[in-house]
């Protein structure tokens, strides 16, 4: 059985072969895979048969992504019902490879662009209304209350100490705030880079102090901190402190999510709250449950628990790389991301807590494309009315 990494690799080759063709080296790799099993060649022939492909895609569109993939995994170890075993006997390894793409929604997204005349897109557009994706925009607020709108595509804000008389005092603070449907990149006075996600704000001094580089964050941001062994860099997210010398990490601190998550990609960080402190290594994520009134039946937590685990770094920084990446996320978690990025109001006519999603799609596409992908699971439907996205059965 192919590993998930191998499955993604060969599935990507198959989709690109159907869509745009492969390089000579890639075609050779695919041919070697085809030659390794006769069923692989038969399966690829079926994929190139438009009628057969429509039939298979319609079948997979009715599946719950997580449940279906769990059943396939169970069957490969002989633990599940007979249906999947018979299916895999027919399609063997090739089926497992492309099934993984189908179940994460990736092949649907790519194949729609490749073959706009197949039945999957025959009824498009499904939605009468639509919402555009977010874009680079923010507001800069100075100490005196004056504000400047920012939003030039591809540009970042750079305020360097001493570059303007107005910013020469260390006591001068700058706040960069992104709205719903906004993101922005900020270059700090020490050369550190910060990417702000939607509904986020970063406050920092125009000139860092000699002993500490401290910034304050609400919402979510990805940091690439310029290394300085003498002057540590500290991020305050509420009363949670993340202290580093020079590293790459992501902090997610949206109040409505009731937790603060720090994911480390490079270097090391020290995360503290109250008397509790944890050191993170690359690939780890620390979650601190927030002590809001809503938690624990209305009782505030004296010392919110810290949960250290192996982090999914790709998932944590997907937003910064222009993607939605869902990893067994429930409908509310998914729709919170949709609401922030598309500046949408979410309403629920039906809420299925058991429904989870796994998949990847670009953030720089209209909301209808994202909702269309989610609908392929067969467990949820949507309506778009103005700026409202309504979740239905």
Task: Report what the structure shows.
- The chain has 393 residues and is α+β, with helices and mostly antiparallel strands.
- The protein folds into 3 domains: 4-121, no CATH class; 135-316, Jelly Rolls, CATH 2.60.120.1440; 323-392, 3-Layer(bab) Sandwich (Phage tail protein beta-alpha-beta fold), CATH 3.55.50.
- Helices cover 30% and strands 31% of the residues.
- The protein is built from 10 helices and 22 strands.
- It has helices at residues 4-19, 24-35, 38-47, 50-61, 65-76, 82-104, 106-114, 313-316, 331-342, 367-375; strands spanning 135-136, 138-141, 147-150, 157-158, 173-178, 182-187, 193-196, 200-205, 213-224, 233-237, 240-244, 248-253, 259-266, 269-273, 276-280, 284-289, 306-310, 323-330, 345-348, 356-362, 381-385, 388-392.
- It has a 17-stranded mixed beta sheet that branches. A 3-stranded mixed beta sheet has the order 19-22-21, with helices on one face.
- It is globular and about 70 Å long.
- The chain starts with a helix and ends with a strand.
- The chain crosses the membrane at residues 93-111.
């Amino acid at each position: 059985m192919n590993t998930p990494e191998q499955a993604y690799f060969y599935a990507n080759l198959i989709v690109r072969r159907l869509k745009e063709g492969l390089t000579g080296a890639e075609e050779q790799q695919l041919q070697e895979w085809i030659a390794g099993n006769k069923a692989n060649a038969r399966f690829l022939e079926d994929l190139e048969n438009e009628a057969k492909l429509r039939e298979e895609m319609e079948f997979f569109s009715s599946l719950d992504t997580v449940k279906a993939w769990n059943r396939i995994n169970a069957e490969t170890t002989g633990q599940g019902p007979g249906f999947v075993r018979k299916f895999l006997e027919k399609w063997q390894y090739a089926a497992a490879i492309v099934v993984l793409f189908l179940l994460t929604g990736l092949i649907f997204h790519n194949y729609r662009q490749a073959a706009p005349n197949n039945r999957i897109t025959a009824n498009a557009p499904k939605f009468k209304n639509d919402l555009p994706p977010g874009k680079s925009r923010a507001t800069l607020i100075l100490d005196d209350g004056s504000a400047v709108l920012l939003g030039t595509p591809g540009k970042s804000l750079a305020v360097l100490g001493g570059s303007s008389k107005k910013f020469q005092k260390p006591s001068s603070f700058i706040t960069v705030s992104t709205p719903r449907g906004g993101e922005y990149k900020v270059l700090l006075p020490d050369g550190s880079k910060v990417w702000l996600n939607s509904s986020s704000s970063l406050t920092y001094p125009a000139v860092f102090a000699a002993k500490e580089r401290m910034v304050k964050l609400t919402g979510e941001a990805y940091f690439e901190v310029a290394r300085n062994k003498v002057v540590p860099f500290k991020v305050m997210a509420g009363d949670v402190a993340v202290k580093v010398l020079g590293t790459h990490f992501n902090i997610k601190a949206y109040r409505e999510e009731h937790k603060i998550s720090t994911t480390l990609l490079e270097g090391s960080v020290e995360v503290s709250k109250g008397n509790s402190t944890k050191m993170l290594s690359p690939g780890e994520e620390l979650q601190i449950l927030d002590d809001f009134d809503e938690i624990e039946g209305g009782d505030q937590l004296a010392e919110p628990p810290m949960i250290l685990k192996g982090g999914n770094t790709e998932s944590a920084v997907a937003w910064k790389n222009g993607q939605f990446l869902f990893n067994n996320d429930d409908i509310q978690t998914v729709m919170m991301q949709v609401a922030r990025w598309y500046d949408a109001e979410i309403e629920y006519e039906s809420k299925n807590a058991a429904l989870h999603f796994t998949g990847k799609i670009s953030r720089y596409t209209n909301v209808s494309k994202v909702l269309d992908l989610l609908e392929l699971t067969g467990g949820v439907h949507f309506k778009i009315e103005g700026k409202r996205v309504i979740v239905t059965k």
